[in-house]
Amino acid sequence: MQEVTSTKLPPGPKPFPIIGNLLELVGHKPQKSLAKLANTHGPLMTLKLGQKTTIVISSADLAKEVLQQHDQFFCNRTIPELVVVGNEHEFNLPWLPVSAQWRNLRRICKSHLFAYQILDANQNLRRKKVQELLANIHNGSLNGDAVDIGKAAFKTSLNLLSNTISSVDLADPNSATGRELSKFVHSILEVGSCPNLADYFLVLKKVDPQGIQSQMTTYYGKMIDLFGNIISQRLLQRKTFGFIRNNDMLDTLLNINEENTGEIDKTQIEPSATLEWAITELLYNPEVLSKAKAELKQIIGKGNAVVGSDIDRLPYLQARVKETFRLITPSGSAIASPDASIWENPNSFKPERFMGSEIDVKGRNFELILFGAGRRMCLGLSLALRMLRLMLGSLIHTFDWKVEGGFKPKDIYFD
Ligand code: HEM
């Protein structure tokens, strides 16, 4: 979606006074509402969200035109109010306009943090966390406990990221601080993903009717304290005689800072939601689950641990992850919903559609742009893919899964 100011606009549903088309998007499945509206008004559509005029693109061809050919006009993001309250837009890479500062940060991230050699070098940090996840699930299974895959995925994703970044567990259920931190990150994600009325009605900016801005101000303060403490501790450790540098991102950034060239960026926790979907879909598609298990058994061998370098030899697992990406709808994606003109049986879960296919998620195929495309494309793509494939491959390979509580596919699927 892109906010606009022009008067010559594409078609769209008739807006109500003041609220515009906001009611059309109320509910748990805005992606479905958008797909329905696009069926009526076309792949280029105007929506009035309160006072904001927004253009929605719902076709791969148009997404390509906007994100590839006219990228220079669309590459700056609309800044939400909750970002403004923390002044995030002044220093945080995703909110910076395309500028020398943004280019410099992106270059540092690409060459020093997310480069293949770097991610290879710190893969042990992630492997250790996945082993812990497997051990926890194993212990739980001995007592017959059900696994809350959403919680487990969230905790492991957070720890995988925090270990890759700074070699610490941010979500440690055995410590009061860990539990508090986990709750705190949850709250940030919850508040951050809640539609903020102040974004749609200028007059509400100062009123903050949902309390979103004030909550975020508190969270930003806590976050800065938290990262500040981690950085101070590391700076002290680095001065200690005999200190061995980690391969984590914090050391890399501090090394760059010593040379006076870098800044620290924040991160996203999206892989946890993707993993939860991936496992849920598998449980409702036993055939896919057994094919994925068979591939892992054949390539990795029973009882052996999955490691990052195995993933290239697991085409079915890769196809599975792409199929999950196709089904979940990201914020920021140009595609409103699984589209019947692009995908055969768009709502059925069929990793086979990607077997032998050249389509990937790296911004070249506009029917699958979960990570965006063009110059603002996701920087954490390689890390996110590695985390997701490693967790998913390990979980499928190590355990036999079944659903607790008698839920049916219709309870969770799109329609
Ligand atoms: C499944 C996991 C993830 C998904 C689906 C995802 C998706 C996205 C999307 C859609 C964008 C906007 C792209 C655009 O505007 O064209 C984005 C931007 C970004 N992502 Fe991710 N992301 C994920 C994980 C991560 C991780 C793990 C990190 C870092 C540790 C990260 C860092 C970033 C950054 C820094 C940007 C802003 C880039 C810029 O504005 O130049 N992402 N991501």
Automatic annotation (TrEMBL):
Heme binds at residue 378. It comes from the Eukaryota. Its cofactor is heme. Keywords: Heme, Iron, Metal-binding, Monooxygenase, Oxidoreductase. One of its GO terms (molecular function) is heme binding. InterPro entries: Cyt_P450, Cyt_P450_CS, Cyt_P450_E_grp-I, Cyt_P450_sf. Belongs to the cytochrome P450 family. This is Cytochrome P450 76AD1-like protein. It comes from Lithocarpus litseifolius.
